[in-house]
């Protein structure tokens, strides 16, 4: 487990440089007292490990920029990929607070060694396009959602794809969550494209995507709390948590309406990783809600995953009994 005694830790992403594993995570000081306040105080921390269980914290990766930068409020969730020339790219969410609400856009930073990062002067490189996506003030949502970039290489060698948490510009206000999509030929220049799913699947938003091919089957992971379900899904009493949607390919089609719950809301933000030593797939998540209802804010040990028919199953790790 990865935990910080003086800070909450939540959303995270992983990278493997071939020798060590790297954990990038959002964190904020517990001196805030209110865990809901953490989102506007988030920085991106960094830890390394040889075995995915014992982690050593190193220098932080990124902090927010100075207003009016696109990340002038906070730096949020992202992903890391390596360009063929050896450069590491970290795509991340930048948030800025306007009189109308929170606007989320995507930027990137680069590194030669995963340790020291330089933000791109071109930021932001992707944001909600009103042709397909809800923008601030045009819907009935608390923010302009275009965040949590998951970037991966096209399997056919045709550039790079980015999946983002986004909302469609049509449909009931509580049921607009979609798989946002952008494409790049080189990781530096991005074209925002129509979403890869339709609204009306039962979710107000789909958070923190990851798509992988696990034992020959494509699967999309996302997270959503019960508070952000559409009314149609809230009515059946399902808890929130980490969800898995089997897919025809890494670009869909995705059966969002038929997604299966992988964990309940004691865990949140599922991340799959294939271990280097044995080739087995495992999942991590952050410890979210304790049995006493408090927010925990730490990251689990690796949890084995397996397919049971069309459902992805995980063997949960122990969840701390309280937030301390």
UniProtKB/TrEMBL annotation:
Pinpoint the Glycosyl hydrolase family 32 N-terminal domain residues: 19-232
Nucleus in keyword set: no
Name of the protein: Glycosyl hydrolase family 32
User: For this UniProt entry, which segments traverse the membrane?
Assistant: none
Q: Which organism is it from?
A: Agromyces albus
GO BP field: carbohydrate metabolic process
Chain segments annotated as coiled-coil in the UniProt record: none
Tell me the Gene3D superfamilies matching this sequence: Glycosyl hydrolase domain, family 43
Task: Give the similarity note.
Answer: Belongs to the glycosyl hydrolase 32 family.
Which controlled-vocabulary keywords does the entry list? Glycosidase, Hydrolase
Question: GO molecular function, one example?
Answer: hydrolase activity, hydrolyzing O-glycosyl compounds
SMART domains in the record: Glyco_32
Query: Which Pfam family would be a valid example here?
Result: Glyco_hydro_32N
Does this UniProt record's set of keywords contain Hydrolase?
A: yes
């Amino acid at each position: 487990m990865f935990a910080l005694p003086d800070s909450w830790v939540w959303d995270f992403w992983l990278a493997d440089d071939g020798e060590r594993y790297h954990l990038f995570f959002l964190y904020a000081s517990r001196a805030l007292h209110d865990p809901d306040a953490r989102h506007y105080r988030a920085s991106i921390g960094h830890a390394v490990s040889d075995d995915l269980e014992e982690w050593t914290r190193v220098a932080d990766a990124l902090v927010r920029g100075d207003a009016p930068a696109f990340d002038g409020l906070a730096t949020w969730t992202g992903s890391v990929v390596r360009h063929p020339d050896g450069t590491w790219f970290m795509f991340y969410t930048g948030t800025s607070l306007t009189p109308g609400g929170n606007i989320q856009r995507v930027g990137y930073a680069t590194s030669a060694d995963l340790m020291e990062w330089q933000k791109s002067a071109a930021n932001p490189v992707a944001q909600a396009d009103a042709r397909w996506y809800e923008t601030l003030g045009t819907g009935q949502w608390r923010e302009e959602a275009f965040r949590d970039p998951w970037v991966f290489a096209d399997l056919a060698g045709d550039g790079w794809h980015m999946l983002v948490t986004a909302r469609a510009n049509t449909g009931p206000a509580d049921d607009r969550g979609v798989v946002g999509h952008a494409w790049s030929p080189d990781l530096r220049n991005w074209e925002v494209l129509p979403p890869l799913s339709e609204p009306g699947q039962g979710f107000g938003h789909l958070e923190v995507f990851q798509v992988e091919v696990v034992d020959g089957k494509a699967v999309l992971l996302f997270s959503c709390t019960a508070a952000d379900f559409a009314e149609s899904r809230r009515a059946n009493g399902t808890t929130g948590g980490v969800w898995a949607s089997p897919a025809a390919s890494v670009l869909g089609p995705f059966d969002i309406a038929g997604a299966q719950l992988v964990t309940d809301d004691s865990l949140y933000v599922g991340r799959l990783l294939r271990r280097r030593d044995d080739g087995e797939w495992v999942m991590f998540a952050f410890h979210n809600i304790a049995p006493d209802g408090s927010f925990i804010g730490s990251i689990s040990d690796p949890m084995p995953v397996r397919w049971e028919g069309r459902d992805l199953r995980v063997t949960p790790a122990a969840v701390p009994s309280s937030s301390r």
